[in-house]
Amino acid sequence: MISAKDIPIDDPEVKNAFFTEVGQREPFQAVLEADFIGPNATIARIDKSVFKNLNEPAKKIATAILMYSFGGQPRGEGEETLPGVTEHDLLLSVISPDLDSTTAKAALKELVAKCLYIHFDGVRYAFKTTPNINKLLEDEVEMIKDEEVKNAIKSLLERELSGKPAFIWPSSSKDIPDREPRFQISYLPLEFAYKSDKEKEKIGLEYLTQYGDKPRNYKNALALAIPDKNQIEPLRRSVRYLLAIEKIKGKRKALNLSEEHIEQLKEREKTEQASRDSSFRNLYNTLWLLKMENGMFSIETIEVGGRALKETNIHERLMELLKTSPPKVFDSLTTSKFLSLIKIENGIDVKRIVDTFFSSLEYPRIIDENVIKNVIAKCVENGSLGITTRDKVQVIGDEIITPPEQTIIGKKISSEEIDTSDGYILNPKKIQVEEKPEPLVDAAGGGEEPPTVPKSTVSDKYKYIKYNLKKVSRQQLYKCFNALANLAEKCGSISIKIEAQSEEGIDINYLKNAVEEPLEEIEIEIEKEYK
Known about the structure:
By secondary structure, the protein is α+β, with helices and mostly antiparallel strands. The protein has 18 helices and 22 strands. The protein has helices spanning 12-22, 25-37, 42-49, 57-67, 87-94, 101-114, 133-141, 146-160, 197-209, 229-250, 252-255, 259-281, 314-323, 335-342, 350-359, 370-381, 474-491, 508-521; strands spanning 74-76, 79-80, 85-86, 118-120, 124-127, 166-168, 184-187, 210-211, 214-215, 222-227, 284-293, 296-303, 329-330, 347-349, 365-366, 386-389, 394-396, 399-401, 423-426, 431-432, 440-441, 447-448. It has a 5-stranded mixed β-sheet, sandwiched between helices. The protein has a 3-stranded antiparallel β-sheet with strand order 3-5-4. The chain is elongated, with a radius of gyration of 37 Å.
């Protein structure tokens, strides 16, 4: 059986017969060239790009519509069949073993959205010799500049990421702030996706480890969101068409658009919005984090892949990815985990703890400094830590002396009461308060209270101190830090001479990345000598 969809309109003899029957050779020649048989015919492009593994469904549907575009036999006296075909009648005429209804409907939708001469009046589909809204739209699209599309996509991102700890399209590492006590994601520009793998890695490491010409301090508080190359072109295309639609709407009166044109424009707008939203939602599905491997910085990649994430907003979606098993970022810490990490011998500034978590890759990544404040509040409440302010602390020898009324321990406090700028954490085992001896009483019953004397005092004073620490292990070195810090506090500064030997030798890159850069980050002047 042969139906309307099977007519070979691209055959020269069939085409001539068609022109003879319709009697509009020149006008319909333009229709056939643009949509059916031209070198860049719309229908052929649809079949090639959308239905490439099927047997040209768009061509079959379009051919059937063309055959129905000229009316038909009179229904009765004075009544003639109207040009065009309804969707119901069209499907009845084209559905066959090689073309199912689902594919036919999908092809019809593509034809209406892209063909230049197909018209739909709300009931019937037909090809006419006058261009539809698509022709007007295509002309407007040609006038949209790439910069307009880029700015529109950036505006979408800015609206989506407003109020989030996120930074859009940095052009250098200096564009990504440092020393902000919260975890942040920097969304790299679309052009990044088209660079070579080597260029990508170089730029990624620079952004994660550098802040302009200085080493980045908070290396443990940053991730890079990588654009998906597969989503960029569909997104650009949809945004370009939506910009063109907006411009046509603004020229409605000047273009003398009909109601049919307006309806077509609305339908096309819905289609392009759906395409834009889908591509935009999946534009960033990969994150890069910094890690230390064999003494050198490298990149750890995390991808959404097939994970079923609940969030739909881009930033929340990526944060959910970071928190899923195995988690890479934490919004809380247990007191036992916290105490095992900081290992307070005497006391330590809260600010130093915050700095350590956000700068050291050996510590877990946390959402923001509130994670530290919350866990400290719990430790103070259960008595595993005490808290005061830095100006209330006096260190004598290896003892910490604080006024009892200025030290909080074993009490419930809110995290808002913990000041990260001058808060000071105390080890309960090392806390001592000033002791006042009983007043001396004379025989007459009178007496006076002597001045307060600290429990620990220093009887001799020295102007020059020198220690020679030999064969210090890693664990012992950590325990030395507080003692050396106490000495530096009394003297203003100290000099440290370090000599180290390794039978196997130490790689120069390891020395730079694991030893020298961390020292330079805290602005310690070092003299280097290698042998």
